Amino acid sequence: MACSRNSLVSFFILGLFTVLISPAISSRVLSSTKRPVNGESRSSVASYCESWRLAVETNNAGTWKVVPSKCVSSLETYYNGGQFDKDYNVVARYALAFAKTVKIGGDGKDAWVFDVDETLLSNLEYYKANGYGSEPYNSKKFHEWVVQGTAPGFDASLKLYTGLKNIGFTIILLTGRDEAERRITEKNLHDAGYFGWEHLLLRGHEDQGKAAVKYKSEQRSRMVKKGYILHGNTGDQWSDLQGFAVADRSFKVPNPIYYIA
Amino acid sequence: MACSRNSLVSFFILGLFTVLISPAISSRVLSSTKRPVNGESRSSVASYCESWRLAVETNNAGTWKVVPSKCVSSLETYYNGGQFDKDYNVVARYALAFAKTVKIGGDGKDAWVFDVDETLLSNLEYYKANGYGSEPYNSKKFHEWVVQGTAPGFDASLKLYTGLKNIGFTIILLTGRDEAERRITEKNLHDAGYFGWEHLLLRGHEDQGKAAVKYKSEQRSRMVKKGYILHGNTGDQWSDLQGFAVADRSFKVPNPIYYIA
C-alpha cells in the first residue's frame, strides 16, 4: 500500500511524544515531594515541620525564638493553602459550643476574655513581609506596623466574638500592647468589626518588663475581684491562658509564627 | 514511497495511546483528593480531620467521646504513614533537651513522672482492631487486651526513659490502671524494655471513680510530700498533666484516639 510521508511523520512524532513525555510527567508528579533540600527530602522536611508546629501549638516546644528557616515554606503552605483558617475555625466552633452551655446570670458578670494580636487581629501581612517569624522580633518595626492600625480581623474570631455578645457575655480584651497604643488599637478593632467590649486592658507603666503570663494573670485576677466570672479565654499564646485566675475553659488559637514568654 | 502496514499501525496505536491515556493519568492523580465522601471531597474531610486532631491535641476540643467516623481513615494514614511517630519523636526530643538543663542534686529526689498507656506502652494494636477510637470505650474488652500484657513500647519513649535514667532522674510511673493489674503491667513494661523505676502508682480502692485529673494530682502531691521535685511529666492525656502538684514542665505526647476526663 502507499501512504503519505506526512501522516507517517505525524504518527512518528505523536509516538515519540508518548515515549518522551510520559516519564517526564510522572517524574514531575513525584519530584515535588522527593527533591532534596540541604540533603533532606522535601517530604521529610515537611513532616518535621508538621511535628514542630504541633509541638509549638501543644506548648511542648516551650520557649522558642524564631521559626526554623527550613519550615518557612511549610508555613506559607499552611497559611496560603487555607489549613490555618480551618484550624482557627474549628477552635472557634468549640469555643462557641462551650459558650452556649454557660448559664448567663444577666448581671453582666459572665465574662469572656480575648487577647488581641493573632487572636482578634491578624498581623500576618507584617510577618509575610518579614520571613514568617524566621527573623528575630524587631519591636521598632512591629510597632511601626501596629500604629498603622490596618490589621484585619479573623472571620472565625469575628463570628465567635459576635456569637458571645449575642449570648450575653461581657467581653474583656486583654493585650500585651502598651497603654500608649490604646487609641490606634481601639480604632483598628472597630475597623475590623469588633464593637461593644467592656474593658480593653493594656500594659501600663507598672506592667513594663513583666512576663506576659504574670501580667495577664494579674489583670484577670483584678477582673475576678471586680466580680466577673471568667467562663472563657481565647488567645494564641499559652501565656494568654496559663498562670492564675485562669478561665473555666481556655481556647488556644493557632499561631506557629512567634512565641511570647 | 512504500511503507509497511505494521509500522504504520504500531505508530497509530502509539499515537492513540498518548491521546487516550494522558488525560486518564492526570485525572487519576487529581481524583484521589477530589473524590467525594458523603458529599464532602476527600481533601476537605482530610483537612477537617487535621483541624480536629489539632483541637484534640491542644485540649481545645475539651471532653470528647469517640473519634468522628469520617476521620478514621485520616488516623490510619497518620499512624501508618509515620507522622504519629515523627510527632512523638519531636516531643520526646524536646523533653530530653529540657531534662539536660536540670541540675541533678544526687539525692534521688529529682523526679520525672510518666503515664503508662499511650505514653510508655502502645495499645494501637487494640485500637486498630476496634475502629481507631471511633467505637465507644469497652472496659471489659480493653481489660482483656491489657491482661495479655503484649503492648509494645514506643521507640521514642524508650529513648527518653533511658536518657532520663542516664541523666540521673528518679522515674515515677503514674497510671489510671487498677492495682489488680500491677503484676501484668510490671511484666509488660519489662518486656517492652523499661526497667528501674522507683514507683509504679496504680488506682487503689480509694481511687475508684475519681476523675483522672484529681486522682493523678493527689498522687503527684503525695510524691511531692515525700520530697520529690517533679521536674518533668509525660502523658498522652491533659488529665495526666493538669490539676495540682504539676511538674515544672509537662510534655503532651500525641493521642488522637481517646480522651480521659
From TrEMBL, chains A, B:
Residues 1-26 form the signal peptide. Keywords: Glycoprotein, Signal, Storage protein. May function as somatic storage protein during early seedling development. This is Acid phosphatase. Belongs to the APS1/VSP family. InterPro entries: Acid_phosphat_B-like, Acid_phosphatase_pln, APS1/VSP, HAD-like_sf, HAD_sf. Pfam families: Acid_phosphat_B. GO terms for molecular function: acid phosphatase activity; nutrient reservoir activity. CDD domains: HAD_VSP (cd07535). It comes from Brassica campestris. NCBIfam families: plant-AP.
